[in-house]
Every structure is written in structure tokens, then in C-alpha cells.
Design brief:
Elements: E1 6-9, E2 13-16, E3 35-42, E4 52-56, E5 66-70, H1 72-87, E6 91-98, E7 102-109, H2 117-138, E8 159-162, H3 168-177, H4 179-188, H5 190-193, E9 196-203, E10 207-215, E11 225-227, H6 236-254, E12 258-261, H7 266-278, E13 282-285, H8 298-305, E14 309-313, H9 326-339, H10 346-353
Parallel strand pairs: 11-12, 12-13, 13-14
Antiparallel strand pairs: 1-2, 3-7, 3-8, 4-5, 6-7, 9-10, 10-14
Length: 354
């Protein structure tokens, strides 16, 4: 028997709600094997900025001008990672970035390890604890040895991302390098990056639906919201229609319209990318919800910071990779239709074709 409560997920069926853990390991992966990982470790107390401070170098808020100044404890933590690399030449630190209350490290396991990678991470954590406890003792915040159990610096376990595809390493490094920039931008625009768990949105004349949401919710108040709907085939006629639809939507978007897309087909994703590149406001309706501490990736992040993006998710977040069902595609397209003041109709398509 289970105490879990099942939920009905549109287009999927009845499922037990997953108990998510951001530190869950990939069960079938051998963590002794030769591989590249991006690891994230967070402080046990994330309300403190013990590892350092973030600031802008100049008034120009670009990725290059985002600066992290490590604290003395932060310097000790960074040194421990490099000491691990010296002691274990089978491990190579490709990129390390401290943040005020967490850190990211891209690490290359160059040859098979004697122990799983987590054991080596535990060595670093243990050594960092000693530096932390000395700091607390000097500040009068820790009693004599044995008087009380000293708190750990880092939370249990860690989050990992495993390199599996060509070009992924470049994205890992860029993500780690730009972490200070993203953190400063989020701090300056907290409302735009805060996940809203239950945003009630009017659909059509009488309907209403609840979404999880991130981004500029006021895009829903724009008078012109234009649905994107592309057929998923590569015929010359369809590719021509996608190009015409893109040109039409971007022109209307530059005049104040908002593009609304489920980003399911290749054409819909192409138009969404073009909208982001052109600075046209975009509402994305997606199958998966938002993980804890979620941040929009890549171009979505930049658009979110500028107030040009709203991401909506009608169904709960899931960690596992799922293939979107036909029923879910139809449901997302229906939501995009209802959210739009200018839905994509056959009449509009015929007029565009001329």
C-alpha cells in the first residue's frame, strides 16, 4: 500500500505525484567511470552569504561586469577543490565558480575512479567543514569541542549534470561563468524570476485555468496576443507558410503584439527563437512545470530580465524525460488559442497565403 495521492494529468492519465529531489543521482550511471560532470553544492544555511559577495564592476550590467569577491572562507573552499585535484590527478577541475551560498564546479573524471565521485566530493566537504568551524569558533559562535554538534557548511549530497551530448560542455562552462550575472539580474528583478505556483488565467470568454508561471504576468493584459500554430512537416509549402507566419508575427510583435506559442513543432520553436532575437514579447505554454530554484535558460533568461517573457505550465513538474502525448499537444494548442486575442485560424492562414 502507498500513502501517495494519485492525480489525473491531462493527456497522460492517473499518476502518483513524484516526490522530487534535486540531489537525486542518475540510477543507471556508474559514477566511477570516465566522464564530465557539472556539480552544484549549496550551503546548509542558504540564508547566509558565507562564501562571498556579488557586485557590478561598472554601471554597465553585462555578464563581463558581474563580479564575485570571495570571502576568506570562500577562498579556503576554492583551495580545497584545487587540493583535491592535486591529490587525485584522475580528477581535473575545468571550471569552478563560487557564489554567495552555493558553488558550481565542472569536473572531468579522466580515468576510472577507485570510489564513486560522491566520495571525493565528501572529502572536500569534510575539509571545508573544518575551515568553517574555525571561523565560527573565532566569531564566538561555536562552543568548546564536544559541547555541541557543529553545523555542516554544505547541505547533504549535491546536484549533478552529466555530459552526454556534443556541444554540452560549452553550455556547462558558459552556465557556470555567467552565474554571477544571472544572480545579480535576478536580484534586481525579483518579481520576474519568482515562480508563481497557482496563477489563475482567464481562457476565452468564460473559462479559467490555473498555471505555474515565471516571468512578466502583465503580458496577459496586452490587447494583442497572437497564437502560433505550425504544421509539423517539412514540405516546401509548409516551410513557406512558416516563413510567412514568422514575418507576419514579428511585424505585428514590433508594433506591440505578444506571440503566444506552445513551442511543440519545429516551426513553432523557430518562430519563438526569432521573437526572442527580435525583442518581441513571448508567452510560452509548456508541458513540464518548474523545478525548485528554476531559472529560465539561455535566451529565455535575457528575455525574462527585460520583461519580454512569460512561461506558463498547466501540469506539475516532473524530473523524468517524457514524450509529449498527442492529447497534451492538442491541449496546449487549445490553451494557446484561448489565451490569444488573435488566434491562428484557417481564414488568417488563407489570407496570409494570398
Amino acid at each position: 500500500m502507498t500513502n501517495k495521492v494519485s492525480k489525473y494529468i491531462e493527456g497522460v492519465g492517473w499518476r502518483y505525484e513524484t516526490e522530487h529531489s534535486m540531489t537525486r543521482r542518475m540510477g543507471e550511471h556508474d559514477y566511477r567511470s570516465r566522464c564530465i560532470y557539472m556539480l552544484t553544492l549549496t550551503l546548509a544555511d542558504r540564508t547566509t552569504e558565507r562564501l562571498g559577495r556579488l557586485s557590478w564592476l561598472t554601471a554597465e550590467h553585462t555578464a563581463e561586469n558581474a563580479f564575485f569577491m570571495p570571502s576568506p572562507l570562500g577562498c579556503e573552499v576554492e583551495n580545497e577543490w584545487h587540493l583535491l585535484e592535486e591529490e587525485h590527478p584522475e580528477l581535473q577541475i575545468i571550471k569552478l565558480q563560487l557564489m554567495p551560498e552555493h558553488l558550481h564546479v565542472v569536473i572531468f573524471v579522466r580515468e576510472n575512479l577507485e570510489k564513486p565521485l560522491g566520495k571525493y566530493v565528501a572529502i572536500v566537504k569534510s575539509r571545508c567543514n573544518k575551515h568553517y568551524w574555525r571561523e565560527l569558533t573565532a566569531q564566538g559562535l561555536l562552543g568548546p569541542k564536544g559541547a555541541e554538534a557543529p553545523p555542516p557548511l554544505f547541505a547533504d549530497n549535491f546536484t549533478d549534470s552529466i555530459l552526454m551530448h556534443e556541444g554540452q560542455l560549452e553550455h556547462m562552462i558558459r552556465y557556470v561563468e555567467h552565474n554571477p550575472y544571472r544572480a545579480l539580474v535576478k536580484k534586481a528583478n525579483p518579481g520576474l524570476f519568482r515562480t508563481v505556483g497557482e496563477l489563475r488565467v482567464k481562457l476565452g470568454e468564460e473559462g479559467e485555468r490555473t498555471f505555474a508561471a515565471i516571468g512578466n504576468r502583465w503580458l496577459l493584459d496586452r490587447p494583442l496576443r497572437m497564437q502560433v500554430r505550425c504544421h509539423n512537416n517539412t514540405s516546401d509549402e509548409n516551410l513557406r507558410l512558416i516563413a510567412m507566419q514568422k514575418a507576419y508575427l514579428l511585424d505585428r510583435g514590433r508594433k506591440g503584439g505578444v506571440v503566444v506559442s506552445p513551442c511543440i513543432s519545429a516551426g513553432e520553436r523557430e518562430i519563438a527563437r526569432a521573437a526572442l532575437d527580435a525583442g518581441v514579447p513571448l508567452i510560452v505554454i509548456q508541458e513540464n512545470g518548474f523545478a525548485p530554484l528554476y531559472k529560465p535558460p539561455g535566451k529565455y533568461f535575457e528575455a525574462c530580465a527585460k520583461g519580454l517573457l512569460l512561461m506558463l505550465a498547466p501540469w506539475p513538474y516532473h524530473m523524468e524525460k517524457r514524450t509529449i502525448s498527442r492529447d497534451q499537444c492538442l491541449a496546449l494548442n487549445a490553451m494557446a488559442y484561448e489565451l490569444s486575442t488573435e488566434p491562428w485560424t484557417q481564414d488568417l492562414e488563407d489570407r496570409l497565403k494570398g
